[in-house]
Amino acid sequence: MAGDGAQHDGTARGAGTGEVDADLLGASALLTEEELGWQRRVREFVAARIAPVVDADFEDRHFRRELVRELGELGVLGMHLRGHGCAGAGAVSYGLACMELEAGDSAWRTFVSVQGSLAMSAIARFGTAEQQEQWLPAMAAGRAIGCFGLTEPGAGSDPAAMTTTARRDGGDWVLDGRKRWIGLGSVADVVVLWARAEDGVRGFLVPTSAPGFSAHDIDNKLSLRASVQCELHLDSVRLPAEAALPGAVGLRAPFSCLGEARYGIVWGVLGPARECIAAAVRHARRRQVFGKALAELQLTQAKVADMVVEHQKALLLALHLGRLKEAGTLTPAQVSVGKLNNVREALEIARTARTILGGDGVTSDYPVMRHMANLESVRTYEGTDEVHTLVVGHAVTGLRAFS
């Protein structure tokens, strides 16, 4: 990474080596060789292709589209899916890939999540064989980009209130409405779009070249600036009958895709948290205050210890959820626990790291403020803290606090 957020080895190291210990509890011993291989390959890609340019891309609001095909070659696009050129990797391998990508920048884990966990998962689960063959191989290779159009200007956490409509006109579908905060909307080739039809919410594959479709970048973001988020406009977009995803009727369909993306977030945010800790510790070792290293002060060590303890707990939580997912027993409430806890703790780690860095912590000499700003978006999308809190509350009490 840039500055003091330089990429580092994830294996445990002694304090005297000059490296920052990223695996204090030895969690790497719980990983298979295949999982470690995925982590290593993605980490190397991030160090070579993302880290050298990400600060400039964040500053310039630049989405580096040429990396899309390279990510396809790396095998991480739809890597949890099988067939159609997808890697068929395990849940923990996917999680580790998300962690390493987000250690570079949340924009790139977001891209992989939107492409694979949302758009590709929807097509794989609910599409016809023809739809899958048309889109999945190209998306896995990075030759085509997909996005996921669910949230609306007036219905973020409440997709049941969506106003985008799909009506039949002869043998066609006609779609009208607006979507907002749609990742990749203006660079996508196809939108997995959700609209209200007579028989309930349905999913459609909308080519972005369709007449009446337009995507407008949200340019005034102070977060995820190296990514693309848009507002989509659908003005009498006419689609053939075969554009509908036949298996996607009702909100359970998009919610299942959101669960995939939320799982990736549980792992992903561990990456920026790790980089913030590393930046703070390296700085504290060098910085001299009151005649000694900042890292020698008890209050500094208390901050470091708190950050590391929470990071390691979050890592073990992610690994546990990954094993549950591989066993086929992971529940939505368990994913909510992971998303709620790990994003919240990652943000607290970033804020604590900034205090150790002092005034310099708000500059681009360190990656901490960039990660902190990005994590504010991650905290909001794929379910806010409030939503996940109520999901967990319902799971424990058996009573719903929301409709």
UniProtKB/TrEMBL annotation:
Domain Acyl-CoA dehydrogenase/oxidase N-terminal: 32-142
Domain spans labelled Acyl-CoA oxidase/dehydrogenase middle: 147-237
Record's catalysed reaction(s): glutaryl-CoA + oxidized [electron-transfer flavoprotein] + 2 H(+) = (2E)-butenoyl-CoA + reduced [electron-transfer flavoprotein] + CO2
Keyword Kinase: no
GO terms for MF: fatty-acyl-CoA binding; flavin adenine dinucleotide binding; glutaryl-CoA dehydrogenase activity
Entry keyword set: FAD, Flavoprotein, Oxidoreductase, Transit peptide
Domain called Acyl-CoA dehydrogenase/oxidase C-terminal: residue spans: 250-395
Class of this enzyme: oxidoreductase
The organism's place on the tree of life at top rank: Bacteria
GO terms classed as biological process: fatty acid beta-oxidation using acyl-CoA dehydrogenase; fatty-acyl-CoA biosynthetic process
Pfam family, one: Acyl-CoA_dh_N
EC numbers for this chain: 1.3.8.6
Cofactor(s) this protein cannot do without: FAD
Keyword Transit peptide attributed: yes
Associated pathway: Amino-acid metabolism; lysine degradation; Amino-acid metabolism; tryptophan metabolism
Membership in a protein family: Belongs to the acyl-CoA dehydrogenase family.
PANTHER family linked: GLUTARYL-COA DEHYDROGENASE, MITOCHONDRIAL
Name recorded for this polypeptide: glutaryl-CoA dehydrogenase (ETF)
Species per Swiss-Prot/TrEMBL record: Kineococcus xinjiangensis
Classification lineage: Bacteria, Bacillati, Actinomycetota, Actinomycetes, Kineosporiales
